[in-house]
Amino acid sequence: IELEIDIVRAIAADEFCTYFQPKTCALGYVVGAEALIRWNHPTKGLIVPADFIAIAEQYGLIQALQNIVLRDVCILIEQLTASHVIDDTFNVSINISQCQFNSAKLKTELLTTLNDFSISTSQIKLEITESMLSGDIDNAIQQMQELKEDGFILSIDDFGTGYSCLTHLSAFPVKELKIDKSFIDNVLDDEAGKSIVNTIISLAKSLNIPVVAEGVESLAQLEALKAMNIDSIQGYLIAKPMMKDDYVKWHKHNL
Ligand code: G
Ligand code: G
Ligand code: MN
Ligand code: NA
Question: Is CATH 3.30.70.3270 correct for 3-252?
Answer without folding.
Answer: no
